[in-house]
Write a structure and sequence with these properties.
Lyase, Ornithine Decarboxylase, Chain A, domain 1; alpha/beta; TIM Barrel; eight-stranded parallel beta sheet; homodimer; about 400 residues; 17 strands
Chain lengths: ~400, ~400
């Protein structure tokens, strides 16, 4: 647990921060928030939290919201207060500030490989109920060795590839063999399977998503049947996301769903066909300032790649008729107006919907909660940068 | 200068950091560095610094390296030690840790709009020689008001749009009018013009870049002639970047060049046609670990969008024959091997070249300097997240 170098570096950041006023303080009007800043519309956010919790409860399925979407313990605590049974993290180090904030039931929805990470994992397992994923016998042996060494115990889920083509075992036979290996190893407990299909979350059509989801569920059933035939109990089936949640909860397969983006939405999820099914409101915005109006049609704002991710496309300007965001540079986004009459003016403040909320949160030290035109909360994005 | 909220938040980060061991310590072998981490090959980095400094000196042009590429004062200090005349920053808050580190000649190569930023700008101008860009009369009036109020003085350059289609005045007449306005306003000094064309930096062909550069230089000359005809001295013409540096220094127009990426290179710049002209070595790498090998052809590593930006494409795996990085997710990159014999194994450590160094640096709290297989330096990316 040596943290001296990192501590000194963060202390360095503290010294510098003293010279820079915060972007906002509680009670500030919207107009007083410095830019670029990440804003959370608390009314829309709370509506989203309630809607997903209600959906899960209607179907008797647990909600375990994914914290990788925001990396902010204050957000997880609000999800727990409404009935979420725990959270997911994607990395071991990411889980540290959540444990520090009092979260005690964390599923690390990923494989954990490497000695430093296994040591940290064991330390977390002393403080909270921790489960992880595995998809390789050598990895479960390393998990067991680390837990033995540190006198900790760990729940392990076999990750199953149900079409994502990323991590996960490929066949029911592998699932059974890995579950048996986990059961045979000291200080590990086989907890179930994870079947997350990220790709299907983003399919545009509702029917298309439903079909993909049904296909994935069919695969999950094969793995569950194989486990049953081998006499292995599988208490947990975890997976699902914002795009597929309505189908996942009704599948009779998942015991819990891992959705994360539903709390915020982004242009990627926002552009999906939601049909008559559950939809969520945009609650997350980037606030920018117009810092140049060099031509009658062009306005340039101070939000760039260091404040919003752009690998999923440009962010979308809110409430500006006939104005498109046509480019995102390191520290600028370029707004193009069809009609000069609609071009924003120098100094105008612009709200943008990010195209991908997870990496966008990870660019900010704080998210500013607003309600009724005022700053109500400033929450640290405590796991920002913690990807080990 | 209230920093209480931000300070408390960063302190919070310090408390958490205590539980997480640093990714590396000075003297560690490469094999002991935890992942994902950002590595700097110090030999290649120093070669790049010397090469660009020598190029500028051969042509009697100043080098003012752009700190937005790295946000790390330790890097700027090394550029200064080799003869750079100062640095560029892109944002006011970004400049704060550089001033704190002793940098005293900083050009903010951007328009600064909004009261909080103008206050911070005046405070910086008390501590260092600061210049900024402007492209609007209302903005130069706001600059003058802020400097008057805080009893500071500021150099101002007119930004000229030479084809970038972002910020900047459009005509020589506008340049003259804005220069005159700057000269007439108290506490401002007209310093010259900025003519930066980001787009041309990335044109693939060497001849294509040269032609675009010559076109831009022609435009710059028109603005310079107009200033001369109006009797306005223009001591500084700043601009240029890594892709155009060889032409910029020979143009007889630029008094200084603002290149930044040359110190590191990325796949975007690395893929350019450099012909016989100056080329630079890749010095910046992401270090990852293979955490899943679910199929004979697929290996998944622990470097994702939270450790490397991907809006300019996927990063490139180094030294792996027949292996391509085919996708970057939040916390994973997927490597695909043409031949299973070439697929990396579980636990293998992989080096990647980022596709865009500027936003990639901004995802990391530290950059780890390596030489001869060992960690020689750990430098804080002190301006990480400072985009106001």
């Amino acid at each position: 647990m040596e943290g001296v170098t990192q501590l000194a570096q963060r202390q360095n950041a503290v010294d510098q921060a003293m010279a820079i006023a915060p972007a906002a303080q509680i009670g500030d009007a919207l107009a007083d928030i410095d830019t670029p800043s990440l804003l959370l519309d608390l009314d829309a956010f709370e509506d989203n939290l309630r809607a997903m919790q209600a959906l899960a409860e209607r179907h008797g399925v647990g909600l375990r919201p994914h914290a990788k979407a925001h990396r902010c313990p204050d957000i997880s605590l609000r999800q727990l207060a409404l009935g979420a049974q725990g959270i997911c993290c994607q990395k071991v180090s990411e889980a540290v500030p959540f444990v520090a904030a009092g979260l005690r039931n964390i599923h690390i929805s990923n494989e954990v490989v490497g000695p430093a990470k296994l040591t940290l994992l064991a330390q977390l397992a002393h403080q909270a109920d921790i489960t992880v994923c595995a998809d390789h016998p050598a990895n479960v042996e390393a998990l067991s060795d680390a837990m033995l060494k540190h006198k900790a115990s760990l729940g392990v889920l076999v990750e199953v590839d149900v079409g994502q083509k990323r991590c996960g075992v490929q066949t029911p036979e592998e699932t059974v063999a890995l579950a048996q290996r986990i059961q045979a190893l000291p200080n590990l407990q086989f907890m179930g399977i994870q079947a997350y299909h990220g790709g299907l979350q983003h399919k545009h059509g509702l029917a298309q998503r439903q079909q993909s989801c049904e296909k994935a569920v069919k695969l999950v059933r094969k793995h569950l049947e194989a486990l049953q035939q081998a006499g292995i109990k599988c208490p947990v089936v975890t997976g699902g996301g914002t795009g597929s949640a309505a189908f996942d909860v009704a599948s009779d397969v998942f015991t819990e769903i891992q959705a994360g983006t539903y709390a915020f939405m982004d242009t990627d999820y926002g552009s999906l066909d939601w049909g008559e099914s559950l939809a969520f409101r945009h609650s997350l915005f980037l606030l920018g300032t117009v810092m140049s109006t060099p031509t009658p049609e062009r306005a340039v704002i101070d939000v760039g790649l260091k404040s919003t991710s752009a690998e999923s496309g440009t962010p979308a300007a809110v409430g500006l008729e006939g104005v498109r965001c046509i480019a995102v540079n390191d520290e600028h986004s370029i707004l193009q107006a069809d009609d000069p009459a609609h071009r924003p003016a120098l100094g105008d403040r612009i709200r943008l919907i990010p195209s991908h909320c997870d990496p966008t949160f990870n660019l900010h030290d704080t998210v500013i909660g607003v309600r009724g035109g005022y700053v109500e909360a400033i929450w640290p994005v405590s796991a920002r940068g913690l990807s080990r």
